[in-house]
Amino acid sequence: MTQERKHIISENYKRITEKIENAKARRDSSVKGDVTLLAATKTVDPQEILFAIHELGLPAVGENKVQEFLAKYDQLRGKAPLHILGHLQTNKVRQVVGKADMIQSVDSLRLASEIGKRSQAAGVVTDILAEINIGQINY
Fold it and tell me: What are the beta bridge partners of residue 128?
């Protein structure tokens, strides 16, 4: 990776973290919880991601394609939490359970059930973020 690329990544990271800090400073004091920056690293080389983790303090990484997640997994595992972003097909669950620290956008009971089944079989707990359409709930 070139020095120029490191500089670009560093400047982008600095700009984003400053925006996050400014937004946190302006939020209502009654709002609890923290903010975690998650970098969606689609098409980004693992060496650039590792630079951001080790040199800049990038706290978490996300991929939206299972194939790309798996291609980078061996280089990134244990370096930062690894997330699966966006829609995950049920036939791909077995490939990421036990590897992804979190699966985001779980958008169906069928997908949640498959994650649960595969997690139980692997002896792991898989954290998820469930997507719930509250406009479709019947009371």
Answer: 103
Specify whether the CB–CB gap between 87 and 105 falls below 8 A: yes
The β-bridge partners of 106 are: 130
Between the CA atoms of 42, 83, 30 and 137, what dihedral angle is there, to the nearest 10 degrees? 100
* Residues above pLDDT 70, as percent of the chain: 98
Find the domain containing 24 and state its range. 3-136
What token pair was written down for 5?
Answer: 């690329």
**Amino acid occupying residue 69:** F
Reply yes or no on whether the pLDDT at 4 is more than 70: yes
Total tally of structural domains belonging to the chain? 1
Q: Which long-range contacts (CB under 8 A, 24 or more apart) does 81-90 make?
A: 83/38, 85/40, 90/114
DSSP secondary structure of 26-75 = HS-TT--S----EEE-TT--HHHHHHIIIII---EEEES-HHHHHHHHHH
Comparing CA positions, the residue from 133, 135, 80, 130 lying closest to residue 110 is 130
pTM: 0.88
Nearest CA among 58, 66, 71, 49 for reference residue 5: 49
